[in-house]
Design brief:
Layout lengths: L6 E7 L5 E14 L4 E8 L5 E6 L7 E3 L3 E5 L5 E6 L2 H15 L16 H7 L15 H11 L3 H13 L2 H15 L2 H16 L3 H7 L5 H7 L12 H8 L11 H20 L12 H20 L1 H12 L5 H18 L4 H14 L1 H9 L4 H17 L1 H11 L9 H10 L7 H14 L12 H12 L1 H10 L11 H20 L2 H10 L1 H6 L7 H16 L3 H9 L4 H10 L5 H15 L3 H15 L7 H17 L1 H15 L3 H13 L14 H24 L2 H9 L9 E2 L7 H6 L4 H4 L32 E2 L8 H13 L5 H8 L1
Antiparallel strand pairs: 1-2, 1-7, 2-3, 3-4, 5-6, 6-7, 8-9
Helix pairs in contact: 3-6, 5-6, 10-11, 13-16, 15-16, 15-18, 16-17, 16-19, 17-20, 18-19, 19-22, 22-25, 25-28, 28-30, 29-30
Length: 821
């Protein structure tokens, strides 16, 4: 059988002055060769690994607290604690520590803490102890001054604590307090306030154990009522005895547990309400008080968790239909406080705590409680549910998926949560916001598990969209049956905004589930009805929902939007907003700007073809004219596929070949003998030459005819397109003759064939310093063709292409002679 006397928990104090649980194991003491001395060893009870190996240093100050704690420091900022299951084990190890240090085991601290300066140490050598004045009414002022003067020095503080502890001074002071209170001696009561406050700042567990005992704690609180800075004393004792009531909802048979609960409540009250807020310099002086409360809470949770009868009775009464409402309210409040206490536990202990509650059936119990009419009970149940979701959302998902196989959709736990969110009576919807956050956590794929056999994401989302999504979207669908929201009051709008926020989250994080739901149920059309709401925040939520959908650049969504003309309500809202410069205006323009910048071709064509007349007069931004330009360029490409393909070929063959390939081909050209070519022979076969001439001239002719018919508006658009961040690039076809000749007569094969070495497309055919032979564009005649802007990421290539083409506007004389030879 395991020796429970030696069973301990190892704690370390972190930077936030909170105790971190390092594990549970069994402690022993023995000589360790490596450390050259007797050491404390703690081995984990789970796997026998070493949790602690600490040499008992003769100069280290060890403190024994609450009969089951041993606390000490190793290094400047490294505090350790051993919490024993039984007092006998603590005493045994304490005796071993005292034996190594040569101390009497009856003391609670083995060394004096020496942090003072050398001068203080020297001065103090002549006074080994601190003598306290007699505990009398006329000496209270002297004692208050002594306490105040001792607090700044760690050594004097330690000596004062030993003197107060050894002489039983606290009980004597409390007797004086009762006398002063009976005599209404305010001066004495004010001195006692300062003295007791100073004793708290001594930060010593042995003193706290006396002060927080059942017979002393109320008098200690009484002393702290008489703050000299207040005109009238506080009434803390009256509150604790008359107002605050301990309700034992389930009988607690263990008297030690009951006493620990009372003590912890009162000490927590002292820390939070009675003691003045500590200054920056006093903060660390109350670390032992924090530790006292922390370990008490750990003990309470552990003792309750181990009492199976107590928890069984608790959940049985919670789910029993015959339990009256008042009793159930008390039970839920207790369970909520129990869960709140668990937040002080370390992760390992918290895991065990929630696992115990899960095994006891906390989720089915919450399901029953959430179905009740009592608002306070439901609120407490919601808080408990939030603890469970934050701790382990997968546990909650698994439960709701299992219950769906047995119960109807109406009574599923998640549907109850959604219904409470929808039916929240709070005008500010505080509860609904909390519940929406919990649903969001449950729907977040980031915290879903994936194993070899199953994927939680797929299973849970399939379950949610089948059984729960219709409940969540019901208020939205019910309120958007016409062109305007049926109900447009503030509370309804807030609720719909919450639902839209959750749906937007689903669009961002779920894939085909939400897509199928939106398209099949025509959700986006219903959502866009809300753009007509009088509440701007709701209209913006609707726009944000559509913007997230467009941002996915999914053609399924795009076709759905075009098929149902879903930009119409957006355009209406934009025109209704007028010229007001507000969030609505900016959000709508940003949506159209995104379509333009990202060049979403299907949506660009849809917007221009259906809504251009409504938007063409908007000129304070260039977004809509830019969309029209995009659209025109798309049409040009569709009408002239040969020109578009030629442009693609030129880009690929002229600018995307390896530099070494260009050099090799150029070298081969100059190495070719003129004698190898017959007079007038082109570099490419005649058939290819003729094909190039016909292919190029046909679209040029058509383009010129169309160009003459374009109105002044088009010129304005082209002129303003520079607002997009770059000038419209032009694709220049240069000819050796004049402008007029170039347009009217077919060019020579050498000058137009992209494959010929002397053409503009061949490597080395132009020089940056050569004067151009033609001008590109005039009002009467156009030599060049307008190129079409490509995606933003190709901007640099386009600029490079312009530079390359400007180099090729002229043909060097050497190559001209080569062609004409």
């Amino acid at each position: 059988m395991t020796d429970t006397r030696r069973r301990v928990k190892v704690y370390t104090l972190n930077e936030d002055r909170q105790w971190d649980d390092r594990g549970t194991g069994h402690v022993s003491s023995g000589y360790v060769e490596r450390l050259k001395g007797t050491s404390l060893l703690v081995r984990a009870e789970s796997d026998g690994s070493l949790l602690l190996e600490s040499k008992i240093n003769p100069n280290t100050a060890y403190q024994k607290q609450q009969d089951t704690l041993i606390v000490w420091s190793e290094g400047e900022n490294y505090d350790l604690a051993l919490s024993f299951q039984e007092k006998a084990g603590c005493d045994e190890i304490w005796e071993k520590i005292c034996q190594v240090q040569g101390k009497d085991p009856s003391v609670d601290i083995t060394q004096d803490v020496v942090d003072e300066s050398e001068e203080e140490r020297f001065d103090d050598m002549s006074s080994p102890g601190l003598e306290l004045p007699p505990c009398e009414l006329n000496r209270l002022e002297d004692l208050a001054e002594l306490v105040a003067s001792s607090l700044p020095s760690p050594l004097r503080r330690e000596k004062l604590a030993l003197a107060v502890e050894n002489e039983g001074y606290i009980r004597k002071l409390l007797e004086l307090f009762r006398i002063c209170e009976d005599l209404d001696n305010r001066e004495g009561l004010h001195h006692l306030y300062e003295i007791i406050k100073g004793i708290f700042l001594l930060n010593r567990t042995a003193l706290f154990e006396v002060m927080f005992s059942d017979e002393c704690i109320m008098d200690v609180i009484g002393c702290l009522e008489f703050d000299p800075s207040l005109l009238q004393p506080r009434r803390h004792r009256e509150f604790l005895t008359k107002t605050a009531r301990f309700k034992e909802v389930i009988p607690i048979s263990d008297p030690e547990l009951r006493q620990k609960i009372h003590q912890t409540y009162r000490v927590q009250y002292i820390q939070d309400m009675v003691l003045p807020t500590p200054s920056v310099f006093e903060e660390n002086m109350l670390s032992t008080l924090h530790s006292f409360i922390f370990f008490n809470k750990v003990e309470i949770v552990g003792m309750l968790q181990d009492d199976e009868k107590f928890l069984t009775d608790l959940f049985a009464q919670l789910t029993d239909e015959s339990t009256d409402d008042d009793k159930r309210h008390e039970l839920v409040s207790f369970l909520k406080e129990f869960c709140a206490f668990s937040q002080t536990l370390q992760p390992q202990n918290r895991d065990a705590f929630f696992k115990t509650l899960s095994n006891m059936g906390i989720l089915p119990a919450l399901e029953v409680i959430l179905g009740m009419d009592d608002v306070q009970v439901r609120g407490a149940a919601t808080d408990i549910f939030s603890y469970l979701v934050e701790y382990n959302p997968s546990m909650v998902r698994e439960f709701v998926m299992q219950e769906s196989q047995q119960n109807d959709d109406d009574i599923l736990l998640i549907n109850l949560i959604i219904e409470h969110m929808i039916c929240d009576t709070d005008p500010e919807l505080g509860g609904a916001v909390q519940l929406m956050g919990l649903l969001r956590t449950l729907l977040d794929p980031e915290n879903m598990l994936a194993t070899a056999n199953k994927t939680e994401k797929t299973e849970f989302l399939s379950f949610f969209y089948k059984h729960c999504m219709h409940v969540l979207s019901a208020p939205l669908l019910a309120n958007t049956t016409e062109e305007k929201p049926s109900k447009d009051d503030f509370q309804t709008s807030q609720l719909l905004a919450l639902i839209l926020e959750l749906l937007t989250f689903c669009v961002e994080h779920h894939t085909y589930h939400i897509k199928n739901y939106i398209i099949n149920k025509d959700i986006l059309r219903r959502v866009l009805v809300l753009t007509a709401s009088q509440h701007a925040f709701l209209a913006l939520c609707a726009l944000r929902f559509m913007r997230r959908i467009i941002g996915l650049k999914d053609e399924f969504y795009n076709r759905y939007i075009m098929r149902n003309f879903l930009f119409e309500p957006v355009v209406k809202a934009f025109l209704k907003n007028g010229s007001r410069y507000n969030l609505m205006n900016s959000a709508i323009i940003e949506m159209f700007e995104y379509v333009r910048v990202e060049d979403v071709k299907s949506l660009t064509a849809h917007i221009v073809e259906n809504y251009w007349k409504a938007l063409e007069d908007v000129d304070y931004v260039q977004t809509f004219k830019g969309l029209k330009l995009r659209y025109e360029q798309q049409r040009e490409r569709q009408d002239n596929p040969k020109l578009d393909s030629m442009r693609s070929i030129l880009r690929n063959h002229r600018f995307r070949r390896d530099a070494r390939t260009l050099e090799d081909e150029e070298e081969m050209w100059f190495n070719t003998d003129e004698d190898d070519l017959e007079d007038g022979e082109a570099v490419v076969p005649p058939s290819d030459k003729m094909k190039s001439e016909e292919d190029l001239m046909e679209p040029i002719s058509k383009f010129m005819e169309r160009k003459k018919l374009k109105d002044s508006d088009e010129k304005e658009v082209l002129g303003k397109s520079t607002l997009t961040g770059r000038q419209s690039p032009s694709f220049k076809l240069s000819f050796s003759g004049s402008t007029k000749t170039s347009i009217s007569s077919p060019p020579s094969s050498a000058s137009l064939n992209p494959g010929s070495p002397g053409s503009p497309g061949s490597p080395g055919s132009g020089s940056r310093g050569s004067p151009p032979t033609t001008t590109v564009t005039t009002k009467q005649g156009l030599v060049g063709l307008v190129d079409y802007p490509v995606d933003d990421e190709e901007e640099e290539e386009e600029e490079e292409e312009e530079d390359g083409e400007s180099k090729e506007d002229t043909v060097p004389p050497t190559k001209k002679s080569k062609l004409s030879s």
